[in-house]
Design brief:
The structure holds two protein chains of two kinds. By secondary structure, chain A is mainly alpha-helical. Helices cover 71% and strands 0% of the residues of chain A. In chain A, helix 4 packs antiparallel against helix 11. The model of chain A is unreliable at 1-13 (pLDDT under 50). By secondary structure, chain B is an alpha/beta fold. Chain B folds into two domains: 31-140 and 312-346, Periplasmic binding protein-like II (D-Maltodextrin-Binding Protein, domain 2), CATH 3.40.190.10; 144-308 and 351-419, Periplasmic binding protein-like II (D-Maltodextrin-Binding Protein, domain 2, 3-Layer(aba) Sandwich), CATH 3.40.190. Chain B is built from 17 helices and 13 strands. In chain B, the strands form three sheets. In chain B, strands 7, 8, 9, 10, 11 and 13 form a six-stranded mixed β-sheet that branches. In chain B, strands 1, 2, 3, 4 and 12 form a five-stranded mixed β-sheet that branches. A two-stranded antiparallel sheet of chain B has the order 5-6. In chain B, a hairpin with a 2-residue loop joins strand 5 (131-132) and strand 6. In chain B, helix 7 (196-208) crosses helix 9 (229-243) and helix 9 (229-243) crosses helix 17 (406-419). Classes of the chains: A mainly alpha, B alpha/beta. Chain A binds chain B through residues 54-57, 75, 135, 139-141, 158-164, 167, 247-248, 250-254, 263-264, 267-271, and chain B through 70, 73-74, 77-78, 81, 98, 103-104, 106-109, 189-192, 248-255, 258, 262, 267, 385-387, 390, 394-395, 397-398, 400-401, 403-404.
């Protein structure tokens, strides 16, 4: 395979630096990726500044009016706040649960391989399908309320999805169930890199279990934290399937997220321009938060190394 | 060796893709595949017709798919916008939904069906709703009647109750049913679209029966929701039903599946129901005997029926198999098949809407209402736009969940109307 030999590559335009990108070779796939993934997004940006209804042939330029609507309309304003709230709670809860599971199932438990599979299983299920299953559990006449009645906790029975004060937290419970297994896998992978010798040495020096976890395990898990936090943050911002299956965004916008509003405004209400503006805002949020996380956590990783 | 396997795999993949796409050959000639899409509640009726059509037309295969009633409009609209719409599909004879005929025709998605054999048989009240710029874009199989669907045996035989003839009778009946440990009305307020049924049930009687031109007056700025006493009464009555214990706990978040299951299982007596969705409950409990009744007015005199020609069938303007698609549409609209379908999917003809030959299950619930044409009223969202319809649906849900008051509903409807007024009704 002389074509791929290092010598050929150097001659083929990398000018003596083997790490340099061979642009001629990369160009076709790069152009393809840009055309398929990025061009439609850029074209879509334009719609965010128009009043296009998604059907008619004409769209009028209306400047920033759609963005003003986002902050003025109760549905979109609520969606923005709910997205930030759900993402914040979800990221913290799912990572705490995932880390706890990973530490618990890393070594000592005998049936750990079976348990790891069981905890990871919810992540493999389709979010929409599992959402409908959870709907049957949390419905007023569903399994949970019937169970509470049977065990004598009638005062805890409530319409979980119909009450604006409980609906978001009910959704968060489903999300923790679905994604804790994934966070667990990230942390388990990280824990494989923590050598037993370090723990043993610290134990001989008299460090408590908590001190060893805090001073040895956590710093060495820095790369796993980066991956898990960034991934779960992006997942939190993009929540859609579970909300549609569980509540449809109700009651009265109490569980709307930016993603559900993007879809509703674009395809249900016929406000494609507003939907595009919401999508642009969502993309901006994800980019800003994810890049900030990467920079901050990257520094932590460097410090830990 | 690896290379050989790779190419064999590639070859197999190409063959599979080739076999799955385009026209299929059955050895005796080409088979044209027509993709047909409708709401789930219509499946039983259309599956039978498709089988008959395919038997009569061996060269055409109908590939049908059905979506739940609540999500159907957005599914169809998403497909059309993405360029992957079905060849023949159900649309909505108005502009109030995302799959409204007039909206889709205006955007060029629908085939012009003017002059087809069945055009003169479209019911008069539905004609303006499927006509755009003087051209016809859909066949209307009939009209649904919507109101309170009820379990006839549970109501009459087990509980010994009569159909309520006044609104106060309905409230007392709710209390009686609740005292027997049953749910009077299983309300699916979590399925937004169903929130139009209770408000239609009350407002058609308190607003539109007395003033059929209210919508035109609102467009002219002569009246508003908040300034119309009938609207206040209509919204208050939905709340009155809630306060009288008519609805189950958690109604604001209940799905249509949950509400229909409660009726099918005999736990609830009534639910908000269009006749076209009876099949869903009958599918859950084949032994159930359903009936339909209106929300009674203040007296028997101002009790009205809410009807809606709420389904039309249209053909995709960009279909690659247009001839076959039109052939299928013409078949479903042919007199004999249309009558059979109307019976199966429980839609009524114009003649039935005027009281002649009304199915007994509906006639018994409505007393003499259908004999007076002024009392058979088109649903109030006809002529609205999707934004306005969804605002009303959300506000009524909020009324049930306690997030909105009667004043909030009226004020916010006025705000929504002023921000995005509907187009004047088609002439």
């Amino acid at each position: 395979m002389p074509f791929l030999s290092g010598r050929k590559l150097r001659r083929g335009g990398t000018r003596g630096n083997p790490l340099r990108v061979p642009w001629i070779v990369a160009f076709p796939s790069l152009a393809f990726t840009i055309a398929i993934h990025f061009l439609p997004v850029v074209v879509g940006l334009w719609y965010a500044f128009t009043d296009w209804d998604g059907l008619s042939p004409n769209a009028n330029w209306i400047g920033l009016a759609n963005f003003r609507t986002i902050f003025a309309h109760p549905a979109t304003r609520s969606a923005l706040w709910n997205t930030l709230l759900i993402t914040g709670v979800f990221v913290v809860a799912v990572n705490v649960a995932g880390l706890a599971l990973a530490v618990a199932l890393n070594r000592s438990v005998k049936s750990r391989h079976v348990l790891r599979s069981l905890f990871f299983l919810p992540f493999v299920l389709m979010p929409l399908a599992s959402g409908y299953i959870w709907r049957y559990i949390f419905d007023y006449t569903g399994v949970l309320n019937r169970f509470l009645q049977v065990v004598g906790l009638e005062e805890w029975v409530r319409p979980w999805f119909a009450d604006p004060s409980t609906v978001l937290w009910t959704i968060v419970v489903v999300l923790i169930w679905q994604y804790s297994g994934l966070a667990m896998v990230f942390y388990l992978a990280g824990l494989q890199g923590v050598s037993d010798e370090l723990w043993e040495a610290a134990a001989i020096d008299g460090a408590s279990t908590w001190m060893r976890f805090r001073r040895i395990t956590v710093p060495l898990l820095a790369p796993a934290f980066t991956v898990s936090l960034v991934f779960t943050t992006i997942t939190g911002f993009r929540l859609f399937d579970q909300i549609i299956a569980l509540t449809g965004g109700g009651p009265v916008y109490a569980s709307e997220t930016l993603a559900t509003q993007v879809w509703k405004q674009s395809f249900v209400n016929g406000n494609f321009g507003l939907g595009s503006a919401l999508a642009l805002m969502l993309t901006g949020l994800i980019v800003v938060v994810a890049v900030t996380q990467l920079v901050v956590l990257g520094r932590r990783e460097a410090a830990a190394a | 060796m690896l290379k050989k396997h790779f190419f064999l795999g590639l070859l197999a993949a190409v063959l599979v893709v080739a076999a799955c796409s385009g026209n299929e050959s059955d050895g005796s000639g080409e088979t044209t595949v027509v993709r047909f899409q409708a709401q789930s509640s219509l499946q039983a009726g259309y599956d039978a017709v498709i089988e008959q059509f395919e038997e009569a037309n061996p060269g055409i295969e109908i590939e049908s798919s059905y979506s739940p009633n609540e999500t159907y409009p957005s599914v169809l609209r998403t497909q059309l916008q993405g360029g992957s719409g079905p060849d023949v599909f159900f649309t909505y004879p108005s502009s109030s939904d995302p799959h409204g005929v007039r909206l889709l025709a205006d955007a060029g998605y629908l085939e012009d069906l003017t002059g087809r054999e069945w055009e003169p048989r479209i019911m008069e009240s539905a004609k303006p709703q499927v006509t755009f710029d003087g051209r016809v874009y859909g066949w209307v199989p009939g009209a649904i009647v919507a109101g309170l669907g009820y379990n006839t045996e549970l109501l009459s035989s087990e509980l010994g109750l009569q159909i309520p003839r006044t609104f106060d009778d309905l409230l007392s009946m709710c209390e009686t049913i609740a005292s027997e440990g049953k749910i009077p009305i299983a309300y699916q307020a979590g399925a937004l679209a169903y929130n139009m049924l209770p408000i239609n049930g009350t407002a058609l009687s308190t607003v539109f029966y007395g003033e059929p031109r209210w919508q035109e007056q609102r467009l002219a700025g002569e009246v508003s929701f908040a300034s119309t006493p009938g609207w206040r009464v209509a919204v208050q009555r939905v709340l009155d039903m809630q306060n009288a214990g008519c609805f189950q706990q958690g109604a604001a978040g209940a799905s249509s599946e949950e509400a229909f299951s409660l009726v099918a299982d005999g736990e609830a007596v009534m639910t908000w129901l269009p006749t076209s969705a009876w099949s869903v409950i009958e599918g859950l409990n084949p032994d159930i005997k359903l009936g339909q009744m209106p929300v009674p007015g203040t007296t028997e005199e101002d009790t009205v029926a809410y009807f809606a020609p709420n389904t039309a069938i249209s053909v995709n303007a960009d279909s690659n198999v247009k001839e076959a698609a039109l052939e299928f549409l013409d078949y479903t609209a042919s007199e004999e098949v249309a009558d059979q379908l109307a019976e199966d999917i429980l839609v009524l003809s114009a003649e039935q809407l005027s009281g002649k030959g009304l199915p007994p299950t509906i006639a018994s619930g409505y007393a003499n209402v259908f004999e007076d044409p002024d009392k058979v009223i088109l649903g109030l969202q006809w002529g609205w736009n999707p934004d306005l319809t969804q605002t009303m649906e959300t506000l009524i849900q909020g009324l049930i969940s306690g997030q909105k008051t009667v004043d909030d509903v009226l004020t916010e409807m006025d705000q929504a109307w002023d921000a995005n007024p509907p187009e004047p009704p088609p002439q």
